[in-house]
Input
Amino acid sequence: MAPESHAVWSSVGKGIGPLELNRIGVAYADQSVWLLVDAGVTIGGLAFAAQGLGLGISLKKNLEVRGCLRGLSLEYDRDPVRIAAGVLLQEPPAGYHLLLTGLAEVVTPQLSVAAVASYAERDDGGVSLAVFGKVGGLHIGTPVIELTGLAGGFGYNSRIAVPELAAVEDFPLIAGITDDKRFPVGQGSVEVLKAMRDVITPEPGSMWFAAGAQFTAFEFIDGSLLAVLQAGDDFTLSVLGIVGAQFPKKHPYAKAALELRAVYRRSTGELSFAGQFTRDSYVLDPSCRIEGGFAYATWVDPSPHQGDFVVSFGGYHPSFVRPGHYPDIKRVGLHWAVSDAVSIRGEGYAALTPWSFMLGGRLDVDFHAGPLSAWLHAQCDALIQWSPFHFELDVGIRVGFALDVGLGTIRGELGVDLSLWGPPTGGIATVHVPVLGDVHIRFGEGRGSRPDRLTWPEFVAGPLHGGQLQVLPLTGVRPPAPDAKNQARPWKASQSGFVLATRSPMPFSAHSRQPGRARGNGVDVRPLGWEGVSVTHALTVRGPRPSTKPIDLVKAGWDARPTTEQVPTSVWGEPLQDTGTRPPAPQGAGTICAQTGMRLTVPPPRATGPLKQIAAEETLSFEKVVFTHGEDALVPQHTRPVGPTTGRPGTVRQAIRDTMATPETTERRDQLRQALAAAGVLPATAHRGTPADFPDRVWSYVLDDPLSAVP
Output
């Protein structure tokens, strides 16, 4: 590749007949002097263009002459047909020695097809490949919803850089590689490939698949959506799009388009959906711009913010300190330059988090004409927190003017601001009067009063919602059907692989797996004003009889470990202290990690008694054969078997019957029947007869006398 990064360029931009010289450059690299040009030639609507075309002369003794070419494009553009193709050899990233990109495009009145591709080679021999294409001009569907285009692609050892919400509108794979307004197609295929460099990049071990569509709905809604699945060291599923509408279609009074972005990322546990108005959205008049956006986000395992969530339209309360993992959303509103003298700006917001709700807006009307200025400013901000309940409301309106009289400015303003808070309820009203200044009127309780704390019954009925401890089987159990009285029967659990989980409505500071033993830290309960209280979650397992002593789970080998989840700080955060100051505005994380349950796994069964004497499988899996003529002989040695011989003396069944009829055997069989019946697994056929009847049935079960050893 020619050393363009070391070149000094000079723009030319002149043509001689069909030849056009864009720029010329010189460079020195690898002990060679290079002369480079970007030039093109156009003949009858067919244009050829070259980038980085040049010659290099080595300054070594042999004065070797070398050529180079970085990019080449071919374009034909005569209405109504456009055909373009190009290849570009780009500077490879670290660890790669080759990066080649290409583009092809065909546009006709009925159909358009465009595709880009990327190929890279690593220094260790690995390759990267990516292809993405779009087809437009389709008419599939009904007048209500019509599919107008399709898109798709894949990448091997490659990745797509998913844009942030504000960049979706200009994202090449959404905006379209044939849209001059969003993408530099008009500057040539080579410029398109340069723009794609940061969109599709090589990345070892990663793969991606993309599929998208363009559509129209109800004849005035246009949309473009693209889904991208990426897998490798991380798993990411993204949906990007733009959906817009204008009404009416001709000479519209309103035009609005939304950038959309939905993302699930496994490594961070992020699940979010957001949107915002594009730059060219307006109502009533193109000068009346609408702006702002919305977002919903939540976090799942393995995120440290698991359980937290936020829903926002237009952002947050002015005193809200946005946590770093919350999306940053612009205010929803409009900005209208009505004339050179009058401008109107309005905005609003609403947001919900695990511990608060906020709502507000602002309206500014300004007038400027020569030395005279006038204004109207109104605002409202409301914030509600719960557990404990607290609210803040700030409302204000001001009307004023200013007149420049040369020797000075005459200014006047009339307005009122009202602030309310509670409980306990209080507030202050401030009246702004020209000449007299501000007049403050206070009422109710002071702002430093702390909200009343809840009692335990109020806390159980409120934040706890009357919740109770839950015990849930996870694996190794088959849920039983209710009996005739609609009462659930005991679980039928497997002796191996049975796992159950507990969940407490209240976090706990300590857990106990052994009788009388617990460990852990304290729990804070904000609504009750408790700090560092001890809450113990004890697991007790007993045998089938109530009188059985509790099992020591540690000694018995049961795997019992606590489980955690994110809980709201409004309930389980540090109590608000009575320090004579207002309750703090929401800030930081809205949730904290706390222990809320246990996961219990039954140990696998262990062999006891005579079962321990069973021979290992490998000792029973083969039998050594002795050959008469060495290991290679095929005929085994015929020798008389060693040991007792077998026969049918005719007394074996009688011996079995006598053994089964002993009192000890009858008692053990009766105990076995009782245990199986208590567990609900006694076979139906076992109800026929009693253990004393079994010995006499030997002749029915065993039709012939079994073989036995003959002395």
